[in-house]
Queue: 3 jobs
Job 1
Amino acid sequence: MKTNYGLSWRALIIYFVLILLLGALIGRIFFIQINDKEFLDSKGESLLYSNRPIVPLRGGILDRNDFPLALSINQYDLFALRNFSHDEYIKLKKIVPIIKSFKSIIELNKKTLLFSKLDFSQYEQIKQLRIDSIEIETSQKRYYPLGEQIAPLVGFAGKEGKGLEGLEKALDVSLSGVAGSERLIQNASRKVIKRPILITPAIKGESINLTIDSRIQFYTFKHLSRFIEANNAKGGSAIVLDNHSGEILAMASYPSYNPNDPNRVIQRNRPLLDAFEPGSIIKPLVLAKAIDLGLISLEESINTHPGFISLNGEMISDSSNYQTLSYKEVIAKSSQVGVSKLALFLGIDGLIAGYKSFGLSKPPDLYFPNLAYGTINARPNISDHEIASLGFGYNMTASSLQLAQAYSVFANKGYMKDFKLFMSIEDSEKHPVISSETASDVLEALELVVTDGTGLLAKPSGYLVAGKTGTSHKTRLKGGYDKSKYISSFAGIAPLGSKRLTIFVSVDEPGLNNYSGGAVGAPLFAAIAKDILSYLDE
């Protein structure tokens, strides 16, 4: 049956259904537009915009005179984006003549590198052009001008700018700064089509000045590395303190590594991380404590005949039978028998209290990861032989920094300072360890070491110095001591007039032809002191 309009009822139903469906679709569109507007806007925006962090320039590590020990250099790469025009190409070519041909850029029809590593002048000129169809990407390169001379102290940062070793790691938060952000404008294919929009600027990392003097560091490392190589040694350390200012002027460790080399083999910071049995270098501390307590005087004599002493069934002997020695000569000749008797006279409590007052077995007040601070054998029922051994530097350990700081007490009229490594830190308060008179007495004994004792090779030409040699056997993994492995050291104060510097050196496992502190440590001290004092006199 047909209607008056010539349409069947089935056709009317179909048309009606189609109209209903069209209405429902239109209604749904309006519903989504109104109710899901924020979601759709953000979704659409995410297809066109994305945020990218701006890495801040890492702060530098500088010496006391602002010479860079670690610095970051910005590198700039120039890219063409889509819609890059020939007119813009001509403008850029006037600034950077060596860039890709315009034809090759257009053919790629995508973000294309035009030039790598613009210099800063080119970067500034291109920025002033304000071209939207180019982008300059900034990256950083970390550079260490002194290289291996100071690597174990400064450390290095990784490719992502994070400190991985040494002070770079310890100071990472301060050096890193605060990241910024920028917005990228992209097409549906996620290709950047316009210059990024700055949202938040990056804040540069803080630059930090060390108390290190780069020239003094150079001399210290030069002689340390030379002596270790010449004596076929395993390694060594050297540290230079300014007794007047309470600052560390140099800290060298060998073997070292080049932090600029991506294939670097990391080496530890020996002056701060190695604790070892110091041997005879410790004897002046025993003398100082005994004098300060009024138990002995410097010129008082002690009998060392017949050149050895037996304690608990074990023998302690001197290289010669020195007969009767003054306590000043006990230090100059480095008599094991003389200092053993002195240690027993002082007693275990006095001995340990004296060492601790000089800062031994205590963590140094220095900001560096995993500082060594050594130990002292203080077990109950300690034997006389162990007490005597403590008197000449066995059954205890200390780091190069601790021993250097201990010797600075003699230069600073009996006062101890916590030597600083950062210029920003206020000078530490000094505290008394021994009297000024005792410090002067010990310095007199230390001067005799250089003029008429075991440290004859420690005297630098043209300067008067004082100091003490040290030679100690290294321990074996299975216990006991290895009679063929030594640590040779020397601690000295220079020059005697101003007493400005304390220099400590140690050489780990020198060859057996020359292994004593007098043969290895003393001339190394003299070489370092000579160059540094000449430099300071300029």
Note: The chain has two domains: 52-208, 214-464+494-536.
Job 2
Amino acid sequence: MKQYWGYDSFRPMQEDIILSVLEGRDTLALLPTGGGKSICFQVPAMALEGLCIVVSPLIALMKDQVAHLKAKGIKATALYSGMSYNEIQDAVQNVMFDPEYRFLYVSPERLQTDMFRVNLEKMPVKMIAVDEAHCISQWGYDFRPPYLEIANIRKIFPQAPVLALTATATPEVVSDIQRRLEFKSENVFQKSFKRDNLTYFVVKEEDKHGRMLRIMQRYPGTGIVYVRNRRKTAEVAEFLCQNGITADFYHAGLPPKERDRKQEDWMIGKTRVIVATNAFGMGIDKPDVRFVVHIDVPDCLEAYFQEAGRGGRDEKPSVAILLYDANDLRQLSRNLTMSFPPLETIREVYDDLCQHYYIEMGSGKNTIKPFYLEQHARRMKMDPVQLFNAVRFLEKAGVIALSEHLRETSQLHFKLNGDELMDFEDNHPDIAEFVKLLLRSYGGLFTQYVKIDEQLIAARAGLTLEETTVQLQTLHQAGVVSYQPQSDIPLIVFLQDRIPENHIYFDPSVYDVQKKKAQERVEAVRAYVTSQDECRSRLLLSYFGETDSMACGQCDVCRKNTHGAVNEQEFQKLSRKILRLHRQGLSKKIILEQLAAQEDEERVLFVMRWLIDNNAIKVQK
């Protein structure tokens, strides 16, 4: 811990979890967002001799953790859908024959491939870590069937302990994770989900943008605003900038370098507020987030709890505020319908994609194609949300996989060497100097894929970026090199040869069970949002099995129940402030904006309503 991570002590429960693994015990760790889950498997993996396989569904997070480990001098690599055959072969060879490799990150769909299965037994596996372990449970909110393959790995390495990690799991899912991973005995370490420094508010609000601005006036510091779709991220960020808030937007559709820049600007405080979809936040540990605002209602409390939990990791007071209106509750029901397309529709989507990409019956395994969701939806005359969920069900059936931004940097590998390369240079003098430049600029090009920078090559060659790209593509087409340009679009991977769509098997009982559980999760969200008499914190904690928690005393419900609204002294103080602003002829909205930075908005509204109802004031809306 000290040697590689520089820490003198562990966070609560980390040491207990690590010691459990080192004792050879299967272990399930439930740690809230920001609880330091990666330390729990990385430290024991370094203490043990051999390889740790880490199963994770998040490609961006895998890449990030591999980069961090390498920066510490620890050898690590990753396997995920969309990598070329040579890249996969290089990674597999490394972990099989180089004992200094300590971590192999694997996406769940990789577990099902022939290459992985054939080579797995030759790997010196001493530990298996399962990140986002709730994905193995069909009762969970993000069930992924490829996770079920993990139990087969256990049979090959019966002595290797399993450490399963998740930030959110209901009691039912906790039990199911252990059963699916074939734990030798129940063994759960669960830190309470209670966050004493994080106060939850739910506000019914028609003018969400206005309320959001007033929140940022009331709570100084850094914040996150979560929205449902990509288009909204840019719209809301622009609105904030127009109103004097330094803001930027973030979603999975942005180029990787742009995402990194936006994230870094926010991390260092150059940007105060990041407006994002749920793609933002995984693996980001910024301690001083003072507010997290949701202006769209999430589909499940698991997701909301994780996203809201990114506030206040420094243990200082922070707020999580969910804004909703009547349309949001209607949208919940619509989203549920879109999330479970009819099975016949899912099969039709598979057949359409095969035809669109010219994949013939009985062929197409490992074919990789770009996947533009909006374009496909328009072409197929489908709702994009329904199409996306149909594709996700095809993933669960094991016929395709959908991956995001697989190559953040272009890569190059020379296929010709020795006499063949010399012959090519003799016959193509116009490009021979360019070939020599590549070989001078990068080492290892003959043995593996090497990351390259086209801008740098262009500068050295005295060419434009476009001319450099043409030269590289020319060499690729001539079979001299394998050139893989940077990819910043989602890719669809066909995991098996095309089959008739009616041969795709979906277990009806699993489909029905998942739909029923999704309905229950939506109802839990609806209950949380509309509740007027139970503490927000208690509602969340009871959903995750903590049924004996005390009321927080700080959320909107507790404040209303404790104070009725305001005491007499507060009432008189607020009345005087409201009356003074009213005499200036200000509207209700302007009065709220004037007072929001100093006073609790709900209490201001309570007093204002009383004054209006008792004809003490008449204000414009």
Note: The first helix runs from residue 2 to 5.
Job 3
Amino acid sequence: MKIFIAVMAVCGFTFSVQGQLKTDWYNLPFEEGVTAGAGVNDALKVIGNKSLDTIIVAVIDDGVDIFHEDLAGKIWTNMDEIPDNGLDDDANGYIDDVNGWNFLGNPAGENIKYETLELTRLYRHYSEKFKNREDSSISREESEEYSEYLKLKEEFEEELSAIEAQYSEYAQLASLYKGARSFYVETVRDDSISLEKLNAWQPENQDGEQIKNFLILAEKEGLGTYLKEGGEYFESQLEYNLNVEFDPRPLVNEEELPIGYGNNMVWAEDPGHGTHVAGIIAAVRDNGIGVNGIAPNASIMPLRAIPGGDERDKDVALAIRYAVDNGAKIINMSFGKGYSPDAELVFEAIEYAEDNDVLLIHAAGNDASDNDSVINYPDGTLGKKKSAKTFITVAATGLKPDESLLTSFSNYGKKSVDISAPGFEIRSLAPEDKTASQSGTSMAAPVVSGVAALIWGLDSELSAKKLKKLLLKSANDLNDLKVLVGAKSILLSDLLRNPAVISAENAAEKLIR
């Protein structure tokens, strides 16, 4: 079972022995010693019957299930586009973009699900030039590129070796579980397993007793779910993300259409991540289904640009510009990567959003690392040149405002990460009218986006810069709190620009007062 727990930690799967939380707890108040919620329910009490302006929130992600029953009436509609007539009615460069755009497809309805990592793409690019070259054959003019190739080669091979080692452990665990399960099924003549049945089982020998204890622990820890998700994880890593031979990009018709490539299938493939994000921001409140989203006034603009792997800089830049040009006031970006060869394209798009008074919210990342040292792109410091004035980077926090507040996976950065928000076991929407719990800074970012949309709805005349300032200044101040980073206890003020948890209630009170 130690293998199971170790592999879970390495692969980023989070299961709680107490089970997943059943509430959308980010709506709860920030209460010392109790919860570190964003105070959404109390903010709505403060707002009362005041009217809220509609705020369009662009969700750049892996897509959104726009047909989810708990997003009814919450999906942006391009009123200037006539559906399915094959024409660009509003002349924005995108044909039939009624509910947003999918940058990962083509007009024939084919769509990319998996992609390589940016590291893989860069390694492949340099390998084409240097793979079979000897050091002595490298000219002075090529030396810089060759050094980059060697660096990428080493990092790629380390990453691949680590994943292969993890997969080996995973395979051992899967085999162990399969064998234990088969023994149980053959012994009791019942192919269904539950804790109740396992506890009632009376094995006849010590081997059977050990198998019983293993299966009980496996059931409690959610091993069956882990093995399913773990199999998908390793498949995507080995067959797609780290496979230098894999290249899905020719499917996209970008050579034919430098702008406007893709299709309008914003729900394509498996939009689980983006649907979860959209639900946190805008799921219909108090309808008895799904969850209660944060902002009843938010309208979601789905922009599919994030595959199962690393996003392309060009797609992200165009998605940001699409959002700005089509009326979004907030852009949620729950994705990131360590390499960005065309970062300037994205930086220019971020500056374009800033110039047009649009607020960008970005997840800090889930590597438990310092973004001041290792950039997580897209980057609000614009490559450490300057800080974008309408860009907020968000760390993920857990249930209680104590030393465990900063989640074990969350990135941080005194200069590059602005604030924190709930990001642990967040219950939100899943495709096909379902709900699910997920953890990550990917969940913390839409909490901030939802709060921003709610507060901006009170006064849409506020500039994005003033709204950002209001959100940061009104957050629950935890300047003196020490949190655990690994085994070390560190002041939150040494980890974040604003050592605080976002507060919808405080922001609403400040604005209304």
Note: The chain has two domains: 18-113+262-512, 118-241.
